[in-house]
Amino acid sequence: MLNRSKNCNDYSRTYFIIDFTRKTNDLLYKVKDIKLAKKGKLSYEWARNHMQILDNTISRLKKSQPFKNITLGFCLQITKETAVLLKGVKELGASVVACCANPLTTQDDVAAFLASDGIHVYAWSAETKKEYDWCIEQVLNHKPNILTDDGGDLNIMVHNNKKFKSLKILGATEETTTGAKRLKSLEKNRLLCYPVIVVNDAYTKHMFDNRYGTGQSTIDGYLRAMNLLFASKRVVVVGYGWVGKGVASRCHGMGSKVIVTEVDPIKALEAHMDGFEVMSMSQAARIGDIFVTCTGMAGVIRKEHILKMKDCAILGNVGHFDVEIDSQFLLKKSRSVREVRPNLDECVLYNGKKMYLIAKGRAANLIATEGNPPEVMAQSFSNQLLSILYILKNHKKLPNQVMKVPQEIDRQVAVDALAAMGIKIDKLTKEQISYMNSW
Ligand SMILES: NC(=O)c1ccc[n+]([C@@H]2O[C@H](COP(=O)([O-])OP(=O)(O)OC[C@H]3O[C@@H](n4cnc5c(N)ncnc54)[C@H](O)[C@@H]3O)[C@@H](O)[C@H]2O)c1
After folding, report:
1. Does residue 222 have its Cβ closer than 6 Å to ligand 1?
2. CB of 295 closer than 6 A to ligand 1?
3. CB 262 near ligand 1, within 6 Å
4. Nearest CA to ligand 1 atom 3
5. CA dist., res. 224 & res. 126, Å (int)
C-alpha cells in the first residue's frame, strides 16, 4: 500500500483523497483540478464514440472479467484516448493506476475525470522533472502486476531503483519506438527482469498510429503553434521512418516542398523514390523554412546547423524525447527569447537571426495540440489491451525478453478495425489455398 502521509506532505499543492462508497474507500490521486472532471468526461465520451474497435474488444471481454484482482500500472500520455483504455481495463475488472509519459502533455480535464471515476491518476500538465519521477514512483507504489509504458521511463525506474526490486511484475508492454530501443538494450545486457511485448512492433500499431496519427497531429500541432501557410514552404523532415513518412506525406498534401534527411541509405532511397528531395542536414539547413525532427535520435539538429539556417526558420520535434534539436542552444544562448504565441518561442541569436522553436523541442503533436486522433489510438490500444491479456495468461512460459506482439493479436486488431469500418474483404477459395500449397 501507499505511504499516504509521506506523499501528502511532499505534494501539498493539489492532493485529494476520495471517499467513494465503493469496494475500497481510500482511492488516491493527484491531479491539477478535480473540478475539471465534467469537461474531461465530455472529452472521454467523444473519444470513446470514435474508438469503436477498442470499445468492441472491451464489450467482447466484459463478461469474463479477465483482470479481476489484477493491478495494472500505466505510464502513457494522459489524453482522452488513453482514458478509453484505462476505463476499459477497469470495466474488465482491473484496479488501475496511471501517470503521464511526458511531463507536459497531461490533459488536466481528462486526468480529473479518470480520478473522479476511481482510477489512481498521478498526472498534471507542466510537471517538473522531480514531480514527473514522483508520479512514476506512485504507480509502482501500488504494486502493479503488469506495466504499460510509453518511452520506457516506468520500466527503467523498476530496473534502476532498488526500492522496486521486490515487485512481482508478470510482464510489461511498451507503446513506442524509443521505449523499445531502451528495453532492448536492457535485454542485451541481460538485465531485463520480465517479458516485454513491444506494441509498437505490431503492424496495426506503427503503420497507422506512427504514420497516419502522428502525420496528422504534427500538422495540427504546427498549425496551432504558428498558424502559417504550409503551401509553398520548404519543410525539412528529419528521419524517414514510420513517423517521418506520415509527416512528409501530410506536408506534401498541404502543398509544401518536402525535403528529407536520413542516415539510413535504404530509407533515403525510399524517400527519393516517393518523390521527395533527399539531402544532408547541412544542405537542408540552408534552405528549409520549417523543420520537423522524427528520428528518436539525439542531436540531429545541432548548433552548427542552426547557425546556417534562414532568418525566421521554424523548428519543432515529434520524436519521443526533447533531445533531437539543440534547444538548449536556442533557449539559453540566444540574445533574447520570448514566447510570441502559445508554444512558440522566438529566439534571437547573437548573429541577429530569429529562430522559432515549437514546444521547446518537445513532442509538438502532443504539447501544441492533443496528440494522435482517436481512430488510430483505438488500434494501438486494442493491441495494448490484448497484449496485456496475453501476458496475464502466458507469463509463466514467456522468457525475460523483448518480444513482438503475437501475430494472432495483430490480425485480430485488423479484423476488428475492418469490421468497425464496415469493410468486407475476400477469403481465399479452396482452389487458391491448394494452388498456394502446391509449390
Ligand atoms: N509524437 C508521437 O506521437 C509519436 C508517435 C510515434 C512515435 N514517436 C516517436 O518518434 C520517433 C520516431 O519513430 P518511428 O516509429 O518513425 O521510428 P523509426 O525507427 O521507424 O524511424 C526513425 C528514422 O530516423 C532515422 N534517423 C536516425 N538518426 C537520424 C539522423 N541523425 N538524421 C536523420 N535521420 C535519422 C532512422 O534511420 C529511421 O529511419 C521515436 O522517438 C518514437 O518513439 C512519436
Report:
1. no
2. yes
3. yes
4. 214
5. 19
- Residue 327 three-state SS: helix
Name the amino acid, one letter, at 276: F
Cell numbers for 233: 514552404
Number of structural domains found in the chain: 2
Q: Which atom of ligand 1 is nearest to the CA of 318?
A: 1
Global confidence as pTM:
0.88
- Pair 232, 137 in one domain: no
Which amino acid makes up residue 32? K
Ligand 1 atom closest to 179 (CA):
43
Is residue 162 located within the same domain as residue 234?
no
Residue 337 domain boundaries: 212-367
CATH number at residue 170: 3.40.50.1480
Distance 178 CA to ligand 1 centre (A): 8
Q: Which CATH number is 284's domain given? A: 3.40.50.720
Residue 5: pLDDT over 60: no
Span 219-234, mean pLDDT?
98
Q: What is the pLDDT of residues 335-372, one digit of tens each?
A: 999 999 999 999 999 999 999 999 999 999 999 999 99
User: 354 CB under 6 A from ligand 1?
Assistant: no
State whether the beta carbon of 319 lies less than 6 angstroms from ligand 1. Answer: yes
Residues comprising the chain, all counted: 439
- The rounded distance, in Å, linking the Cα atoms of 62 and 59 is 5
